């Protein structure tokens, strides 16, 4: 069972990485082609996909970065409660 969870978490992380790469690549392109309407639409779609994959990862595993951590019950710092990447067994 742990193996299946680890594979799922790994797949979610890979999706976040791929989506982030696409967004970063489009940012670089748009820096030199700011009026490219097709690239702007692709950027908006990629940005939306990246947000969805980050949300799916956060829901399943926890926040990827401390800045996205929520204060639990308005009283407790939750960043340290989620499993660290090396704590997920494969």
Explain this structure.
- The chain has 90 residues and is mostly helical.
- The protein has one domain (2-87).
- It is built from 2 helices and 2 strands, in the order H-H-E-E.
- The protein has helices spanning 2-32, 37-60; strands at residues 71-72, 76-77.
- A two-stranded antiparallel ribbon has the order 1-2.
- The longest helix is centred in the N-terminal third of the chain and has 31 residues, at 2-32.
What fraction of residues sit in β-strands?
Answer: under 5%
Shape: elongated
Number of helices: 2
Global Rg:
16 Å
- Helix-strand makeup class: mainly alpha
Largest sheet, strands/sense/barrel: 2 strands, antiparallel
Oligomeric organization of the protein chains: single chain
Average the pLDDT over all residues and give the rounded result.
86
Number of strands: 2
Itemize the secondary structure elements and their pairings.
Elements: H1 2-32, H2 37-60, E1 71-72, E2 76-77
Short structural summary:
This protein is mainly alpha-helical and 90 residues long.
